[in-house]
Amino acid sequence: MFVSHFTITISLVNNFIDPLMFALYTKLAMIISSGFSQLKEHVQAVNEAIGQAVIGLKNVPVSLAIIFTSTEFAHPLVLKAANNLLGGIPILGCSSQMILTDQGVFKYGFAVLLISLTQQTFFNINTVKNIKPDTSLSSGEELANKLLYGFKNVRRSLSIIFSDSLITGGTNLINGLQENLGRSFPLVGASPSDDFANQKTFQYVNNELLSESCSGIIFGGKFNFGFGIKHGWLALGKIRTVTTSEGNLIKEIDGLPAVKLYEEYLAKDTMELAKELRRISTSYPIGIYLQGEKEYLLRNIISIKDDGSLITQGNVPQNSRIRLMISTEDSRLKAAITASEEAKRNFGMEKIKFVMIFDSAARLTLLGRQKSIEIGVIKEVFGKDTPLIGICTNGEQAPLKSINYLGQTYLHNQSINILAIGDQ
Amino acid sequence: MLSFIFISICLIVAGMGIALLSKVQRLKESADKIKTLSLSLEEMDEQAKLIMRTDMELNKAQEELDKKIAGLDTLQKLSKEINTTLEEKQIFKKIDNKYLEALGFKQSLAFLWRSLEREFRLCLCLGYSHEESERIENAVNLNKDYFLDLIHNRATASSEFATDNFLTKDKVRQLFLTHSFIICPVLTQEADQGFIFVGTQDIDATITKGDREFISILANQIGQTLDNARLFEKTWKSQQELEIKVEERTHQLTQALEEVKRISRRKSDFISSVSHELRTPLTSIKGYAAILLAGKLGAMPDEIKARLEKINRHSDELMQMINDLLDISRIESGKVDMKIAGQDLKSIVEKISDLLSEQLKIKNITFAGNIPDNCQNIMAARGQIERVFINLVGNALKFTPQNGKISINANRLNNTVQIDVQDTGFGIPQDDQEHIFDEFYRVDNTINQEVKGTGLGLALVRQIIEAHQGKIWVESKPGEGSTFSFTLKAGQ
Q1: Which CATH number fits domain B341-489: 2.70.70.10, 3.30.565.10, 3.40.50.450, 3.40.50.300?
Q2: How confident is the model at residue B337 (pLDDT cuts 50, 70, 90)?
Q3: Which residues in chain B have Cβ-Cβ distances shorter than 8 Å to A283?
Q4: H or E element: which one contains B180?
Q5: What are B277-294's pLDDT values in tens digits?
Q6: C-beta atoms of B49 and A264 within 8 A
Q7: Which residues of A touch chain B, with CB atoms under 8 Å apart?
Q8: What's residue B283's pLDDT?
Q9: I need a surface site. Which of A10, A68, B322, B339 has the fewest CB within 10 A?
């Protein structure tokens, strides 16, 4: 609507490609502005959301746009409209089953976060397409290389990735990324959840609408962040051992077909379990014991094979010590608070400019009608004026904290991943 | 020495034996402890299983409860939207994706049976493309017997609860391109009924009894609203027809009234011209009679004189009648200019009292005028309103027997003054009361038979009062007297 009248100044200062332009800019701090619209007409919604964000920026040059939308908005024309309005500035984002903003959790909407960076902050965005199960490792390596291009003499701080949650081999993708970014390099990411009807998730990179891809951004220079990841599930019952597994396929637990674990605990046969698998997997995931970590690493069950093997979302190494997990609303909310507090603590004393949330779809499903309750507790930690933006995920990527894992990034399930971002 | 060594060895062996025994004992104790711990662990694991099963049941119950609350909330909002709709086409437009999703579904279709065309017509389509909905509409009509059967049996079909019918659940799934579904008849009191379908492709979704109940409530709600809309349409149509008829009838009545007015005007003109025509010769007759009576043409015998006096008297009466008729016709036709101005009612009443004092005295009739201060000023044409009083008090005098009473009372009603002329006369029968103000109407009683009258006095009174925009009426009981009341605007 009214947005078309705005002029957005394109800034290349934050892009490593043009370091000679640095002197032209004197901005001292990162400036953030966000917009959100739920208008039925998609292009009008784009106009409204970007309009809100542009007004908030008060003519400051935009460096980067983060766009999160519900699946309905995943259309080339929507992205084209956003590109036209933003005047070709770098765009990174994805579609998701639900969008998280300061105002709550929404099943439908278009959210945008416009970021104006200082001349000492650098970033690069890139993507890898057509990721197949057997190419996920090399795709990860390729994306890392693309992201690192031009960053040789710049201090790297953080990489955020958005990968299609429907691609298999997510763990390999992360391994590939870490291979080139460095095992201990902070890598945070999300696999957005789909709405189950389309069976597809979409990634946005500049003017490209992609699927079966992984897009990412790497930040460097004067940049500060802090993250926290927690789930709130607690172990219940005896410790079991994964006696046979292969990638994300658990064949045997304690020498018995893996499904026996659920049959035994829930007193249901395989058929009944298969029928209620989503509910069971959401409520009672498998927890992998990690030495030194405060919480178990969760794994959702995606499906049960005829031989009683369990397919999980993310790899489960052989000989892992596992337990069935259980949670309450209270324990999950406490986890959201702890993750937020951890992100805030890790960020340090500087002012946090915005918070990015990757919240598992399972958690939001369990919250039912009170979906926005988590947003409420997060806002209490960061203060009501800190902009929040996020998506609902089917897998969250974040480093493990304990010394045993050297800050290596792992694929998490059912967790809330909080990322606080600002200047150094 | 050897014995010492032997004893020492024995002691050592004994010591070792004791130590061994003690170790065995400790091992046994440890084994027991491990066994106990293992048992405890097993017990705890069993308890964990119980916790997990209970938790699952609780979660299920909570989920169902949440679903029910959300469903009820949605149904309440949806009902509110639908209930306010009185147009059949608009009812289904009120159901949108927002409500459907809140009820846990992503697809919905509604069909109404068109008995004339003998086919189901699509009225609502959510979650399908145009092509898909067209394909489904055709498929529904190909299997119409199944759906007519559902409607006829008032049965609800769903993916969880089997229906004994030739169309299996899988066929319904194929037909509606869905996984979980509910089909519920939309029943109406009359005319075309139909069914509503809701579904979801989510393979993990399960249809609960609660879902069926909600969709059943929604279908009932739609049915009732359809009935209301149809009834409203029917009533609206009837009202429209009635309005047309009323308009036609009003037009006819207006025309008739115009005709009546035209005739009335012609009557008034006729009376006016006839009266004028009559008055001219009557004046001559009266003049000649007067000349003759005055003896200007010579003395006349008494018998002729008596006859002449009769001619003179009857001429006067006739002249009076003609004058009254002329006045009525003038007032009716608006030819009389009513110079309405503020008048003092008290002085008018006093004047009437003076005027008729002689006759009141003869019959020994008490006359009382009770005019409160707030009624003193009235808006009237003085001459005309005096005629009203003369006529009304004159009539009262005529019909009130000896020693009776006549009173004039006034009271204020907002901007109006009501004046009552009350007598203790013979009264007027009920049947006569409604005609008493008609022209030439005379109540059939002994006095009227004895006392001559034109039957125009009260008609003239009514014309004068109506020309003042007032009202006149009579209340009377035979034997108890009459009260003639009229209203006039109060003066400033």
Answers
A1: 3.30.565.10
A2: confident
A3: 55-56, 59
A4: strand B180-186
A5: 777 788 888 888 888 888
A6: yes
A7: 107, 196-197, 236-238, 264-267, 275-280, 283-284, 324, 326, 368-369
A8: 82
A9: B339
List CB contacts of A174: < 8 A, sequence separation 6 or more: A140, A187, A189, A397, A409, A410, A411
Residue A280 sits in the same domain as residue A345: no
A79 and A95 Cβ atoms separated by less than 8 Å: no
Chain A residues with CB inside 8 Å of B51's CB?
A: 236, 326
Domains B83-236 and B341-489 share a fold: no
Phi, psi of A190 (to 5 degrees): -150, 145
pLDDT of residue A16: 44
Domain finish residue from A325, A343, A370: A325
Tokens matching residue A320: 């892992």
Q: Do A236 and B52 touch (CB under 8 A)?
A: yes
Q: Which one is predicted more confidently, B218 or A112?
A: A112
Which residue intervals of A162-234 are DSSP H helices?
Answer: 170-181
Mutate to test the interface with B, among A279, A280, A302, A304 (most CBs of B within 10 A): A279
Distance of alpha carbon B63 from alpha carbon B68, whole angstroms: 8
Using an 8 Å CB-CB cutoff, list chain B residues near A236: 48, 51-52
User: Are A107 and B101 inside 8 Å of each other by CB?
Assistant: yes
> Distance between CA A222 and CA A14 in Å, rounded?
11
Architecture of domain B83-236: 2-Layer Sandwich (3.30)
Instruction: Return the DSSP state at A10.
Output: B
Residue bearing tokens 């003054």: B417
What number is the average pLDDT over the span A303-325?
94
Interface test with B, best of A266, A272, A329 (most B CBs within 10 A): A266
B206: chain A residues, CB-CB within 8 Å: 275-276
In terms of Cβ atoms closer than 10 Å to its own Cβ (0-12, 13-18, 19+), residue B116 is exposed
